[in-house]
Specification:
heterodimer; A: mainly alpha; about 75% helix; B: mainly alpha; binds CIS-heme D hydroxychlorin gamma-spirolactone; binds protoporphyrin IX containing FE
């Protein structure tokens, strides 16, 4: 049961990072100057994200639900100790989702309000992505202390530091990288395609740089990543593979093999996540009092059975409908969307 | 938390009902091929898109807040009552997929398949509403565990989900959503119609909205009465607070209006109807109704708030039911007098007030318990200091979001007006 639930959490997290991450990245990309391509770029992002962002967002909710029903101690410890980052994350999610929808569905489309929406959308995307990284980095530092009562110890210490910051930047870059790769295949406009390829190159570089920063910053932590990786050769291999795949990625990108580049980029992110998980498995968090593992902190078996049942039955409905959603909007690609004149008889 | 919920509940009610109105308009378009219905469908669709996004983000905040604010509560409650939330999550997921398909699928699916995705948005929203109320029902009528020495044992999530307060609460809530949103939408279109804007469109919109709104409003008082009976049985202290009944007795009167005074244990300025409360609560004029005197003082809910909120809800319920009857009476004859349309306009916001009042009755009426009779609210709060900042943060955020939403919906209406002139 517990293994199945860990699998579900892992899968949901992965899908959230891959699918939701591209949505976040799209927002980050819109923050960058785009010259006269700005409108065309907005158009592409609206069309690519519009149908799917709500569904992509649901993976996060799924994780929350599994945690609070199946692993209540882990959930409450997280929420208490990482209270501020969680709040920051929530504010970001609220602003982002509303700004994106408002931008598209505002009945009166005018320069000024549109600019405000875009700006809010981009800024909150960047903000939320960074906080997600900070939260992820804080899980295993061994500083989280449910018994802490002082303001600093309870509110700030668990997530404060160079290492969480570096991971935050790393996550934001990964998201922007994923989005660039993804958007290349979503447009037929040559200048825009070139722009996204250029962005992919930039963010590829930034991913490597911030990845290095993460390693460097981790030296100030209790467990430094280089040391941990040397002890776990499998992890080292996984990370090396993820880095090497960049070569393959650029080969496919040069050949304009859209689907293959997407698969490789997703593969890289999957490897990074897996490497991270394997390093700490099966612990969900490491607190000052020691690790909290999924196995020790699970709810009673009757609850887990119901949770797994709900997830399995839910999957029977969710996966086919998701596949249908992606088939209708995604694999048909940008070409058909253009032929059909954009989404809906209202245009966009 | 209460504040976030109070905000979320409005959007949730709209999010459950609007897709149904939209699908009805869409159905009529596909059947009759009258372009006005298409116009209407797409107008409502934009509203649905905006409200869904706001409902979704405010719901996300809630799911985190449960842990942020009530860690003590969630730690024991999560494994017991997580089940409706996990089903709710499933329903939301389907809803999110369906809304993506519907909003963007106009030219990519066969018309009736496309219609089905729109309907699915409404149905899954409705189902998720029914699920989530089970969680609240469980707080009112805890079930599915044994409470041994401050911890839950022998957890049975299925039994917790099918608790005894669920049927009346979810039935009443879903009807409340239909009634409040139906009447609100009907009122807005009545107003536009009266102003002479796009009369054909607005009259059609009004009729669709009021089919739901009027029908639900007529049934609602009966369901409310049923809810009252259930409360009398499950939470006598809440019923006593609702009625401002300080002393137990047989053949007790129903007090309409008035302000309960806890110090003197009397209700000032209320109108008493002899024996009616006994009759309503237990279907017997001579039955005994338990008053607050049977409970230790520290276990009383805030009587004044609960009583007043209940009076507000019932007053609104009665007005809306009357409006519903009048509406059907004139709808059968085919014309609506202007005063009825103005009445619709006047009643547009009432249903939302009733929903808020109803939740205050349920929630405040349950105090000082967070899980009735088992865990006290003050034992469940987060130990992290400085919660007021949290409150202000979300107050500001939600106010901004509410203002933005109202502003956008106003712009929708303006855009429609421009299109049709007038
Ligand atoms: C449009 C909305 C609306 C209207 C017109 C009414 N209600 Fe209501 N009421 C609600 C919306 C609502 C609600 C918001 O949906 C509540 C809160 C929790 C719940 O289950 O439903 C509620 C709760 C609620 C409760 C408490 C249930 C509990 O705590 O378990 C009672 C006793 C009533 N109602 C009774 C009535 C009566 C006698 C009405 C007569 C006209 C009435 N309501 C109209
Ligand atoms: C599943 C749904 C709900 C859950 C789990 C829930 C949870 C809680 C909790 C934990 C409390 C006690 C804390 C306190 O006293 O402030 C509470 C109180 C309260 N809740 Fe809810 N609630 C739910 C639905 C709602 C809704 C929809 C409303 C809508 C208005 C609402 C309004 C309130 C109010 C007004 C209080 C305040 C009581 C007081 O401060 O005396 N609740 N609720
Ligand atoms: C503690 C209480 C609650 C929690 C944790 C919660 C959670 C959520 C979440 C996570 C979402 C977003 C789903 C999405 O992305 O589509 C949501 C939306 C929604 N919630 Fe809640 N909710 C709560 C209370 C309620 C109540 C009391 C109702 C009403 C009966 C309700 C009805 C809805 C509906 C209908 C939506 C869909 C939004 C829309 O269609 O606009 N929720 N809720």
């Amino acid at each position: 049961m517990i293994d199945l639930l860990i699998l579900f959490i892992g899968a949901a997290l992965l899908l959230y990072v891959l699918l939701g991450g591209s949505d976040f990245g799209a927002g980050i990309i819109e923050l960058l100057p785009a010259g006269n391509l700005r409108e065309a770029q907005k158009e592409v992002i609206n069309r690519a994200m519009g149908p799917v962002w709500e569904a992509n967002h649901m993976w996060l909710i799924l994780i929350v639900v599994i945690l609070f029903m199946g692993f209540p101690t882990i959930f409450t410890t997280l929420m208490i100790s990482l209270h501020l980052p969680m709040l920051a994350l929530l504010v970001g999610i609220v602003v982002r989702g509303s700004a994106f929808t408002f931008r598209h569905y505002d009945a009166i489309q005018e320069e000024k309000s549109q600019r405000v929406y875009t700006w809010l959308f981009g800024l909150s995307s960047l903000w939320t992505a960074c906080w997600l990284g900070i939260i992820a980095a804080s899980l295993n530092r061994g500083i989280i202390d449910p018994a802490a009562r002082g303001i600093w110890a309870a509110w700030f210490a668990p997530w404060w530091g160079l290492y969480p910051l570096a991971v935050g930047a790393f996550v934001a870059c990964i998201y922007a990288f994923l989005a660039s790769i993804y958007l290349v295949g979503e447009t037929e406009v040559p200048e825009l395609k070139r722009r996204f390829v250029r962005l992919a190159a930039w963010f590829n570089g930034l991913v490597v740089v911030t990845g290095g920063l993460v390693f460097a910053a981790s030296m100030t932590e209790r467990t430094s990543l280089p040391a941990a990786f040397l002890r776990a050769p499998l992890n080292l291999a996984v990370m090396a593979l993820a880095t090497l795949l960049f070569v393959v990625l650029w080969f496919f990108l040069a050949k304009r093999r859209t689907m293959l580049t997407r698969i490789v980029a997703s593969g890289q992110v999957t490897l990074i996540l897996m490497g991270w998980y394997v390093l700490y498995a099966p612990n969900a968090l490491i607190t000052a009092q020691g690790p909290l593992s999924f196995y020790d902190q699970a709810a009673p078996p009757a609850t887990l059975r119901q949770l797994v049942l709900a997830l399995l039955i839910g999957s029977l409905f969710i996966f086919p409908s998701l596949i249908y959603l992606f088939r209708i909007f995604k694999l048909s690609g940008g070409k058909q969307a253009k032929a059909a004149g954009g989404p809906g008889p209202l245009g966009s | 938390m209460a504040f976030s919920l109070g905000f979320h509940i409005i959007f949730a009610a709209i999010g459950m009902t609007m897709p149904l109105l939209m699908s009805t308009a869409h159905y009529l378009y596909l059947k009759k091929k009258d372009p006005v219905y298409l116009e209407l469908t797409q107008m409502w669709m934009k509203g649905v898109a905006i409200l869904f996004a706001v409902g979704a983000v405010s719901g996300t905040v809630l799911s985190f807040e449960l842990g942020l604010l009530w860690p003590g509560f969630m730690q024991s409650a999560g494994p017991i009552i997580g089940m409706p939330f996990s089903w709710e999550g499933t329903a939301f997921f389907l809803e999110a997929v369906a809304i993506g398909l519907f909003l963007y699928g106009w030219k990519r699916m066969r018309p009736w398949v496309h219609w089905c995705t729109g309907l699915l948005v409404g149905v899954s929203g409705f189902v998720s509403g029914i699920f989530v109320v089970a969680a609240n029902g469980w707080m009112n009528a805890p079930a599915g565990f044994d409470w041994v020495g401050g911890a839950a044992r022998n957890i049975n999530p299925v039994r917790a989900m099918f608790n005894r307060a669920w049927p009346h609460e979810s039935l009443h809530m879903q009807l409340g959503a239909l009634s409040a949103v139906g009447c609100a939408v009907g009122g807005i279109h009545a107003w536009l119609y009266l102003r002479g804007r796009a009369p054909a469109l607005n009259l059609k919109a009004l009729r669709i909205a009021m089919i739901f709104g009027a029908a639900a409003s007529i049934v609602q008082p009966f369901v409310g009465h049923y809810a009252g009976e259930r409360v009398a049985e499950l939470q006598p202290a809440k019923l006593a607070a609702i009625e401002g009944l300080f002393t137990s007795g047989r053949r007790v009167p129903l007090t309409v209006g008035g302000l309960p005074d806890v110090e003197t244990r009397t209700v000032k300025w209320g109108v008493e109807i002899p024996g009616l409360l006994s009759l309503l609560a237990h279907r017997d004029l001579n039955s005994e109704v338990v008053g607050l005197d049977r409970f230790p003082r520290q276990d009383w809910p805030p009587v004044l708030i609960v009583h007043v909120a209940f009076q507000i809800m019932v007053a609104i319920g009665s007005v809306l039911a009357l409006l519903g009857v009048l509406y059907f009476w004139f709808a059968r004859r085919g014309t609506f007098p202007r005063w009825l349309l103005w009445a619709l306009v006047g009643c547009a916001p009432l249903g939302m007030f009733a929903i808020e009042a109803g939740w205050v009755v349920t929630e405040v009426g349950r105090q000082p318990w967070i899980i009735y009779g088992i865990v006290r609210t003050r034992d469940a709060v987060t130990p992290v200091p400085g919660m007021v900042y949290h409150f202000y943060l979300f107050l500001g955020l939600y106010l901004a979001l509410a203002a933005a939403t109202v502003w956008l919906l106003r712009r929708q209406i303006l855009a429609v007006q421009q299109k049709f002139g007038g």
